Amino acid sequence: MKMPQIPMPDADGYFGQYGGQIIPPALKQVMDEIAAAYYEIRDTPVFQNELRELQRHYIGRPSPLFHARRLSEKAGGARILLKREDLNHTGAHKINHCIGEALLAKHMGKKKVLAETGAGQHGVALATACALVGIPCEIHMGQVDIEKEHPNVTKMKILGCDLIPVTRGTATLKDAVDSAFEEYLKDPVNSIYAIGSVVGPHPFPMMVRDFQQIVGEEAREQCLAQERALPDVITACVGGGSNAMGLFTAFLDDEGVRIVGVEPAGKGLDTPDHAATMALGTPGELHGFKCYTLQDAQGNPLPVYSIASGLDYPAVGPQHCFLKDIERVEYTTATDDECLDAFMTLSRLEGIIPALESAHAVAYAMRAAAEMSPDKTILVNLSGRGDKDADFVAERLSL
Fold first, then answer.
1. What gap in Å lies between CA 26 and CA 122, rounded to an integer?
2. Residue 168: is its pLDDT beyond 70?
3. Based on the domain organization, do 148 and 25 belong to the same domain?
4. pLDDT: is 131 or 188 the higher one?
5. What pLDDT, on a 0 to 100 scale, did the predictor assign at position 7?
6. How many helices (H) and strands (E) does the chain have?
7. Residue 59: closest CA among 116, 107, 102
8. Catalytic residue chosen out of the listed positions 83, 94, 148, 290
9. Which of 36, 341, 372, 397 could be cross-linked to 376 through a Cys-Cys bond (beta carbons 3.0 to 4.6 Å apart)?
10. Dihedrals φ, ψ of 80, to 5°?
């Protein structure tokens, strides 16, 4: 279905029935101030020039578009293209919105930036951006993820951020969000919560999408230049959904392009050990916005699981929810085993070690390519590199 030509989001921060600001009145005023500041500066030449200069000379944009020939031959069928966000400074797409959020915090005169992180890529990127603009940074991270993603923990400490271990609940991403948000509520006037995905209360789903949409804009232009055509299918992993929304946005009006988001099926959809919100979730509320969420009968978020720390979140961005309902984007899943197979296959056939998050999308692309003809193309957003996951995978597979 073609994307409706209406503002997304509307003035109240809704994408259809999803999004908004489900927050206390005092916090709503703060969020409205953030939105006003963002609207004020986002299209100004000064802000845009500084952002574009940092994207090119600091992040290293544009990221390349790579034809994975050996991976394509292995899968059989369609040609697989990789949008190499893993080559960005800090190793993932996260730096795209972290630079934008840090510049916004500087413009607003904030004294501290707070955030959560799962796999650590958002934490590293935000600590990097805060070091660049000279603002103190505090990152909340689940203890399970701290132990699993040690390389990123070390980087965050080197970059000077204050790392707060979170041991409550499952000690993973959802709990880190809770912890960071509670700390932010203590002083929302002097601090800003730099949300790490297209989630949370308005304006964050919109802002993070806007900062990430350069991924899709570049990819679309690169496909037309290198392939002389748009891809037949584009795909990306989906946790909160920032890397996917960054890619998808530029292609929403291209009716001939099939768009597929890939969620973590974990140990199987017939077990409780997954984070497949779109597949098995229902409309609800979490962290200040309306969305699909994995929840119990009382509306409480369920414990979730993924081999990829950045995907174990029981909700998903409101624009993704809207796109699912209007059937413009399809959402499917990949299991832990499929993810690990894609991780190793891409590493050994192309010399590219992907993040476990990104490997979910690679797994889908390998599966889908086999059912398509050789004149078709699949574009994968390779959202991050797997340095952070190498030791974990080696231990898991007894390498």
1. 27
2. yes
3. yes
4. 131
5. 62
6. 16, 14
7. 102
8. 94
9. 372
10. -105, 125
State which residues form the domain around 43: 15-54+94-208
Residues 163 and 232 in one domain: no
CA angle 181, 186, 187 (to 5 degrees): 105
Q: Which of 197, 309, 358, 383 is catalytic?
A: 383
- 88 and 103 share a domain? no
How is residue 252 written in tokens? Answer: 């929403």
Told to judge if 116 belongs to the known catalytic residues of this protein, a careful annotator would answer: yes
pLDDT value of position 1: 43
Which position among 85, 116, 218, 263 bears the catalytic label? 116
Q: Per DSSP, which regions of the chain are E strands?
A: 14-15, 18-19, 65-67, 79-84, 112-117, 137-142, 162-166, 191-193, 233-237, 258-266, 282-286, 289-293, 330-335, 377-382
| Annotation says 309 is catalytic | no
The backbone torsions φ and ψ at residue 382, rounded to the nearest 5 degrees and listed phi first, read: -85, 85
Q: What is the pLDDT of residue 181?
A: 85
Determine what percent of the chain is predicted with pLDDT higher than 70: 98
> Apex CA 180: angle with CA 174 and CA 183, to 5°?
145
Same domain for 41 and 67, yes or no, is: no
CA-CA distance, 97 to 291, in Å (whole number)?
A: 21
C-alpha distances in angstroms, 387 versus 140, 159, 353? Answer: 21, 17, 7
Same domain (yes/no): 74, 27: no
